[in-house]
Design brief:
Blueprint (H helix, E strand, L loop, with lengths): L24 E2 L4 E8 L5 E6 L5 E5 L4 E5 L5 E6 L3 E6 L5 E5 L7 E6 L9 E7 L5 E3 L5 E5 L3 E5 L5 E8 L7 E3 L2 E5 L7 E6 L7 E5 L8 E6 L5 E5 L4 E5 L6 E5 L5 E6 L11 E6 L3 E7 L1
Parallel strand pairs: 1-22
Antiparallel strand pairs: 2-25, 3-4, 4-5, 5-6, 7-8, 8-9, 9-10, 11-12, 12-13, 13-14, 15-16, 16-17, 17-18, 19-20, 20-21, 21-22, 23-24, 24-25
């Protein structure tokens, strides 16, 4: 989440029966938080493991994405303007949302991680800004525009004009099966919303993480346990949420502006179901080890 990218007033979603704010207790899962990499003054926005021993990280403040090795060393750098989500595509290319700022414009670009000598290529455009992103199983790519809409980009880069949904201050794009989960970063009740891919107008709030004062829920991921993990930028917390019942618990607190997270994937000694890597807008990439 780029805070500067979402200067708008959150509005109520009409026609949707919404749950009351949840009473959220601890998950009861022991966690250990350590620093994987730190660079003071740097805004780390998003990340994606490549399954080849590296993790690509969006450096929003530096207009680039960087690939880190398990040692913490940077092995590659690709220039991208104000990068938001970075995602591995089904074609082996990496897709990055560019223009994750209030100035915009938002677009999606892609690059070949095996041939970094080749130029970054445009893929899709027409967004005010481009924050969260993610692929479904059919290769469609979804873009969360923090000005209040989620878009569907068909394989090849054309925006599907017949598919859109308006969710004020939409931030995350987290896809599980036929459902897309998004957060509303400016919502005073910190809503997490489920959007059926087959019927985006039928979106429903799954859970409210606060009541009257936003925690600024940002991006997140689906864990190996099938649960939804969401970072709260404003409150410095990570929540674990059932995608279907909305039952939520607090996994980690005391962080400094967490923006996104991913479980380790073929990343040296790190364990996929235990090691959760978290980017922070305050200049750190963290490892959260689950007990």
């Amino acid at each position: 989440m780029a805070v500067a990218a979402v200067a708008m007033t959150f509005g109520a979603m009409a026609g949707v029966a919404e749950p009351a704010a949840a009473a959220i207790g601890s998950c009861g899962t022991p966690t250990t938080v350590s620093t994987f990499h730190q660079d003071a003054g740097t805004w780390y926005e998003n990340l994606e493991f490549d399954g080849r021993g590296g993790v690509w990280v969006s450096v929003l403040s530096g207009n680039r994405v960087e690939r880190y090795l398990p040692s913490g060393a940077v092995s590659s750098t690709v220039d991208v303007r104000a990068p938001g989500a970075v995602r591995a595509g089904p074609d082996g290319l990496f897709y990055v949302n560019a223009g994750d700022t209030v100035e915009g414009p938002g677009e999606v670009v892609r690059f070949d991680p095996q041939h970094l000598d080749r130029p970054v290529m445009p893929y899709a455009s027409g967004f005010a800004n481009a924050n969260g992103g993610g692929f479904d199983s059919a290769g469609n790519y979804y873009v969360a525009d923090s000005n209040g809409r989620i878009f569907k980009v068909l394989p090849g880069g054309r925006v599907d004009a017949g598919w859109t949904t308006e969710i004020p201050s939409a931030d995350a794009v987290i896809i599980k099966g036929g459902q897309l989960f998004t957060t509303s970063v400016l919502d005073p009740d910190s809503a997490v919303t489920r959007v059926p891919l087959a019927d985006p107008a039928a979106h429903q709030v799954v859970v409210k993480l606060s009541s009257g004062a936003t925690k600024a829920p940002d991006d997140g991921t689906i864990g190996p346990d099938g649960q939804l993990y969401v970072a709260a930028y404003g409150s410095g917390e990570i929540f674990r949420i059932s995608p279907w019942t909305g039952r939520a618990c607090l996994l980690v607190s005391g962080l400094a502006n967490p923006t996104s997270m991913r479980f380790a994937d073929r990343f040296g000694p790190y364990v996929p179901w235990r090691d959760l890597f978290v980017t922070e807008g305050s200049g750190s990439i963290l490892r959260v080890r689950l007990g």
